[in-house]
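Reviewers of the previous submission asked for a worked example of the structure-prediction workflow described in the proposal, so we include one complete record here. The input consisted solely of the amino acid sequence. No template or homolog information was supplied to the procedure at any stage.
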Amino acid sequence: MRGTLALAFVIAQATAFAQSPAATPAIDIPKADLEATLARAPAAGVMDQQIRVVDIGKYNVAVGVLHRAAKAKHTAISHAQVTEVYHILQGSGMLVTGGAIVDATPVAADSETAKVLVGPSTTGPSIRNGRTRKVSPGDTIVIPPGVAHWFTSVDDDMNYLVVRVDADHVLPAGYVNPALKK
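From that input alone, the workflow returned the following structure tokens.
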């Protein structure tokens, strides 16, 4: 009898859990939003733009897009609290991860980089003792918090999607890129 009551309780709990709505509904980021954001990229420069930041309870998830022109100057960076997942859409280059940032300098706390894009971070001109590899369309790279990363060179102008996992809620939940607000 006790086993039957316990089983009934477990089934009732599982049914209630399965029927309860998710705290956050699915959020769509259409290709048009990606393209509209990329259209603002400087032809000869570097652009990092958050498209959206969604609070899904235990953490925030941000989706953004980056453009790196082959001729632009690229610097190293490390984020204290945010994981990044890069998916290369177009172009190619040499990516270095790990090691130590040379002449590391904290990013200003009131900068867009810290407040909107990646939270507290450190930047510098290069990385010492990192792992270098070529990345190209279709490649996906996961960069945990605290891991330095840097493109030493970009062969062809590069665009890549970035998903930022923010377990500490340092990114602004509900953010929508101003270019997409209608």
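Residues 1-20 have pLDDT under 50 and may be disordered. We consider this example representative of the routine output the project will generate in years two and three.
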